[in-house]
Amino acid sequence: MKVLILGGDGYLGWPTAMHLAGKNHEVFIMDNYLRRNMALETCSEALIPAPNLHDRVNIFHSLGGKSMRVEIGDCSDYRVLEKVICDFSPEVVIHYAEQPSAPYSMRGFDEAKRTFDNNLGTTFSLIWAVKEHVPDCHIIKLGTMGEYGTPNIDIEEGWLNVEHKGRKQKFLYPRQAGSLYHTTKVLDTDLLWFYVRVYGLRVTDLMQGPVYGLSTDESELDERLLPNFHYDDIFGTVVNRFLVQAVAGIPLTVYGKGGQTRGYLNLRDTLQCVELAMNNPVEHGEMRILNQFAEQFSVNELADRVQRVGNGMGLNVKVKSIENPRKELEDHYYNAAHSGLLELGLEPHLMTDDVLAVMLEQVIHHKTNIDVQKIMPRVKWK
Ligand code: USQ
């Protein structure tokens, strides 16, 4: 298939690009280095420096990988995106091109505005470019489990059947996000659903939980192909942060009571899920929503696991609750459905002790790159 990956330089985008090229798809990557620039501006550089996108593609190609086309451009700029869509005529667009950090979006007005403009602008431009030029194209959009928030009832897979005064209607499951970043994803969903209803677009919205992991099969070919692994308070997700803290000898930073529960996913499974969505497209006028995670944990459970496995490897891992910089429930009900991707064939990589040990070994290998100044939270919600 002809696959356009928006945000193809990112933590998820780059491994996806290699994976799909490795499956002989024709891959076109578009990215404007937004996340690299924001990381530089906030002193949040990744653990392992990554070559630029052109160099990454050339390295992958030189190691026997299929070549990919690259466009360094702003996906939220309609004319720029439209040109790429017209030139390439994708059959699938995978939309990762969003500012992905909740703390960044809560840092101040400029960061909030940048998040809002980029995320909504890219989704809006994509919808229009597809509608006008490639209406048969399947849009696969990375949403987030955080759109649902932490309601006191079971979380369904995108939709809720409501019975009201004797009548029934299926609605989007209520969304109440906990950061401006997550709220832009809620707005994305609403935009897509509007254009699916009115213009018959084909959309899959993947509601992904926090992802962890340092490598995938293709990135293990050469260290220069590794994904951008962040461990700072702004771009690092909690598991990745805990791995680095364990290696650096810093007590694992549990925010508040640590009862915050989320659905987690190995980076390798993101690639599987996206490929499954691609190989099982939806019809015109259908918006399929799939909850994309493998298993649920509380922050305390994660900290315990990392501590146990780390100590088994001779690290002296401590856990410490610190003041929660976020406004979120720290002790709550959480039970989210996630059968859709399993039914499509997902074989999840679970967070076993062995998986944690391998990741800790990988971090130990890069231990000298760890900058301990990047660990403690710098952004507060209030
Ligand atoms: N947390 C800690 N200690 C830390 C870091 C985080 O206790 O050192 C807690 C947070 O307070 C939160 C939970 O761990 O309750 C998850 O935090 P996170 O930073 O791993 O995840 P989040 O900010 O929600 O965002 C990440 C990605 C985002 C994606 C989202 C999926 O950055 O792009 O959409 O995970 S989800 O969380 O399901 O919304």
Care to describe what's here?
The chain is α/β, with parallel strands linked by helices and 382 residues long. Strand 1, helix 1 (13-22) and strand 2 (26-31) form a beta-alpha-beta unit. The protein has helices at residues 13-22, 34-41, 53-62, 78-88, 102-105, 109-133, 180-199, 238-248, 267-279, 299-312, 340-344, 353-365, and strands at 2-6, 26-31, 69-72, 92-95, 138-144, 159-164, 167-172, 202-208, 211-212, 252-255, 261-266, 287-292, 295-298, 319-322. 50% of the residues are buried. It has a seven-stranded parallel β-sheet, sandwiched between helices. A three-stranded mixed β-sheet has the order 9-11-13. Strands 6-7 form a two-stranded antiparallel sheet. The longest helix has 25 residues, at 109-133. It starts with a strand and ends in a 17-residue tail after the last helix. The mean pLDDT is 98. The protein has one domain (2-374): NAD(P)-binding Rossmann-like Domain (Rossmann fold). It is built from twelve helices and 14 strands. The site of sulfoquinovose-uridine-C1,5'-diphosphate (USQ) has 21 residues, from helix 8 and strand 10.
